[in-house]
Amino acid sequence: MTAVELAGITKRFPGVVANHDIHLTVRKGTVHALVGENGAGKSTLMKILYGMQKPDEGTITVHGEQVSFSSPADAIARGIGMVHQHFMLADNLTVLENVVLGSEKLHGIGGKARRRIKELSERYGLEVRPDVLVEELGVAARQRVEILKVLYRGATTLILDEPTAVLVPQEVDALFDNLRELKAEGLSVIFISHKLGEVLSVADDITVIRRGTTVGTAVPSETTPRQLAELMVGSELPTPETAESTVTDRPVITVDKLRMAAPGGKPLLDDITFTIHEGEVLGIAGVEGNGQTELVDALIGLRHADSGVIRLADEEITAWPTRKRREQGIGYIPEDRHRHGLLLEAPLWENRILGHVTEKPNAKGVWLDPKAAQEDTRRIVTEYDVRTPGIDVTAASLSGGNQQKLIVGREMSHKPRFLIAAHPTRGVDVGAQAAIWDHIREARREGLAVLLISADLDELIGLSDTLRVIYDGKLVADADPATITPEELGTAMTGSAEGHLEHEETPAETQADLSKSAESPEDEAR
Ligand SMILES: Nc1ncnc2c1ncn2[C@@H]1O[C@H](COP(=O)(O)OP(=O)(O)OP(=O)(O)O)[C@@H](O)[C@H]1O
């Protein structure tokens, strides 16, 4: 049985054919993965299926019936649901309120709604509690609420846009279990991902899109990640490996006892202390929401810590504003590229100036130099393989991965001494990921110090010279990137670690927490 069929879909934007004669058949009760390099046209196709965009040509068939969508509401009415990559829940409302919001007509807002939520939660193993506030939930739990929200609206085909980008390995396994439950009940899932190993483990069918058109399908059981990468981008799957160490004993950035508290007094950063030297990548591992955002904000100067000292080489910069920090050589790849990295409605070349208005080549003396900025944008577009019809299109018209490449290119172009890299390759395809890793490694050889925050544990382990785990605003453990596995690191991040980790001097209770593990021999001895 076919759940959804897209046939002959074509969609043009000025200067770009985003989709060209795409064919996709999703069988009922399956997980169907959609893979392809950045800008291949995956999101566009899904926006068409979800009624956010109209195709120029082609047909959409849902459960055997041809349909035409003018809005997401039309798509939802036909059982198509979408879980976006940027979650859209209201923090200060409960799970129940978030789920029923906008769909009060279905089951009201009271007991009936609560019963329905519980029923869905149990049936698909989502473990969603209706009465907790969303702000109290971690990333994985929020994602399950989003999934429940679309199920509540009657979705029978769910579109998930890079759902695993923000999850640790254990959470990915749990999500995949949920997807299996959905399948078992006859629902279908379309899943966009750049993580090819995961695609092969969870998908029943795979469709590959290249340069706007479907170039083939792959049978997961007969395909390796390498072969899939080759189908996608015509290049091999990269592995990030720390080449010979380039770490020196010259400190670039020194952070001493940094503390920050929430308005209510809850500690967000608790006694954070570290040094990164020339030629060193310090990786910070942690589940989102354990202080990473606050640490990055404090380092780039978006927020000031309550106490503690930050030094760049020999100079104390704790009170410096953001612009001065950037001018003095701090580069910044933000975790949320839409909020902090780009002006979406401005052309690419203006985005190239963003954050670096007073620096060369954007400025000459006190004046902006648009010509030079434009020329340099062209260079970045070529060097970082930003797929775009030109530098005058808006940042919003680039695909997600290409937006990311532009930001990385901009920041690296200023030859920073210290780079704050939050998820530098999020949403980027395997080929571009390898290229970005190479750029970072090359700069490291020349003395760049990097603070790397990433949810991609292979990236974290492969690029870091030193690895530390952040938990509840504290740096709680060190890990050796040469020996730790992603699974072990994932365990450490969720607050319980196994043998590989060396513990810092942390309060006794934290240590106990961290070393707790069901299988550890000490536990059995206790
Ligand atoms: N609103 C728009 N206006 C102009 N061009 C667009 C628009 N949306 C997408 N495009 C272009 O269409 C092409 C396909 O983009 P799309 O976002 O579908 O790619 P993708 O496969 O999802 O990429 P990624 O993996 O980077 O998310 C790109 O060249 C992009 O620049």
From TrEMBL:
Residues 4-236, 253-497 form the ABC transporter domain. Residues 489-526 are annotated as: Disordered. It comes from the Bacteria. GO terms for molecular function: ATP binding. Residues 508-518 have a biased composition (Polar residues). Transmembrane segments: none annotated. Keywords: ATP-binding, Nucleotide-binding, Repeat, Transport. This is ABC transporter ATP-binding protein. It comes from Streptomyces tendae.
